[in-house]
Amino acid sequence: MLTTCPIIILFVSVSCQYGTYPQDHEQLSADERIVIRFSHVVGEDTPKGQASRKFAELVESRTDGYVEVQVFPNSFLYRDGEEFDALLKGDVQMIAPSTSKVTKLVPEWQVIDLPFAFNSDQEVNEYLESPAGQVLWDKLKREGLYPLAFWNNGFKQMTNNRNPLIDLADFKNLRFRVMSSEVLEEQFSLLGAQAHVDAFDQVYPLLEKGEIDAQENTFSNIVNKNIHTQQEYMTISNHGYLGYLVLMNEKFWQNLSDEIQIVLLESMQEVTEWERGIAEEINRENRQTLEQCDCVNLHELTHEERVVWERALEPLYDSFTEQFGDKYIHYIPKFKKERSYN
Ligand code: LMR
């Protein structure tokens, strides 16, 4: 039975306790339901695209349609650079940006962008459960962002249309699209390239128009947006990690009843475990697509080549430490062991 209490409508939330959900959501008008607008920038067949849809389905079925999660993929509502504002103003209630994109608000999250910091999804996930990760999560809350989960995508690879990227000299003057993170900008400066910060939905058109030459992204994002069709060379470098913060507007979250919060958290936990499996699978399949398409020249970085890149990029660790101290770096797995090239 629906009890009498303040109604939650789009953009306006008022908390109230419901003993049970209404049996037939078809009978409810839009302004009697809780509507969560969830905006993201990638395609529906990517790990994030599939996970957000699954989250919407689970929540809808577990609340008999009382909570409706409306998913807007492909920058349909908001692009990079607009998403955070939209969330903080309450124009949408959920977003799932990459960790790199939160660094304008919480620069310490750049630790995830440090090149060659992690060797597997699991290492990233464990880092985020460490004391350093805990501090990073807490900083989001101070910005009005309620973190619900971390979703994996995978490791970034580099593509360009000029030459294979193997030696450091190969980067000279290449115009590389990057996400908005200073570590990423500096990464390409150190390699002798030029970094361009652009929204994700601009990568394909900018490559097509020849306004940029190169970009870094996961197999899933490259294949899903046909980026490889505009690029001749790919280096499988696994140099940087791409994962997502699944965020809700903090005030919206606090205004939900305990009962609804529990359903959302349970559903999110289930989806997050599932997402970790499909992220790996989708990236593996998309890598195979590129290996078999005969459409892009692939080079996998050898151990020796990787060591040269790692050394060239070491100053990023120094500047990160200068800015934020060594507490975040300390929990990166490779600093717990000896570096491979020492
Ligand atoms: C990018 O901008 O390259 C990625 O963050 C897109 C995404 O959300 O995976």
Automatic annotation (TrEMBL):
Family: Belongs to the bacterial solute-binding protein 7 family.
Keywords per UniProt: Signal, Transport
GO cellular component: outer membrane-bounded periplasmic space
Annotated source species: Novibacillus thermophilus
Matching InterPro entries: DctP_fam (IPR018389), TRAP_DctP (IPR004682), TRAP_DctP_sf (IPR038404)
Any one GO biological process: transmembrane transport
Protein name, per record: C4-dicarboxylate ABC transporter
